Amino acid sequence: MGRIKSSGTISINDIRNEFGASGSPDLAEYRRGGVNATRVHSYGSGHNTNVGTSQVSLSQFYNAHRGWHLTCGVLGAGTSFEWRGYSNGQTLTAFGSINPTNYRGATIRGMYRAQATFKGSTTRSMVIILSGYRARNWFNRYVDPNGTYYTGAAAWSPNSTSTTWSWTVPNFGSYANGAVLSPETPQ
Averaged in consecutive runs of 10 residues, what is the pLDDT profile of the chain (187 residues)? Predict the structure, then answer.
């Protein structure tokens, strides 16, 4: 799940490969914010804004990509720990929802912000957990309305069942329902 190319000829199959498909090819299926809004988002940060909301043409899809539509969930453990975002229950108790639920064949186990307070000191993290052992550069950056984070700067923790990337963040950040998280082109 990278981006559609930035120049040259784009075909309906390029768009279907990026955003998914149902039935026979129909470009109208890929209007931004239309019936399949879970496919073509604007992400709140300027992505895919060239893709029309009523009329759609192939040329509007240069550099377009599919990210994630997250409906925020909150999991609190007393006053010391709180998580906001999505977990499928394999890492933390399930909360929130996300579409799609995989990235390049890896199940997304969690995309969330965590806040922990211990002895008056608070730390905040952005965490992404994917199933299986994944290279540090499985994707190269993570973008959400709170900021952009590069995998080269992440704490990276792989094992045979899952891989975690985490970043220390300056504020907890809030995800209103419908916030979108969008890992980008893999290196």
Answer: 80 82 74 60 59 87 76 79 90 85 83 89 92 88 78 94 94 63 49
pTM for the predicted model, two decimal places: 0.68
Q: Which residues contact 83 (CB under 8 A, 6 or more apart)?
A: 74, 75, 76, 92, 95, 112, 113, 114, 115
Instruction: Give 18's DSSP letter.
Output: H
Q: How far apart are CA 182 and CA 50, in angstroms?
A: 17
| C-alpha torsion sign, points 82, 141, 49, 100 | negative
pLDDT given at position 37: 45
User: Is residue 18 a contact partner of residue 4, using CB atoms and an 8 Å limit?
Assistant: yes
- Residue 84 CA: distances (Å) to CA of 74, 76, 92, 95, 127: 5, 9, 11, 8, 10
Say how many residues make up the chain.
187
d(CA 178, CA 18): 21
- Per-domain residue ranges of the chain: 1-66, 68-181
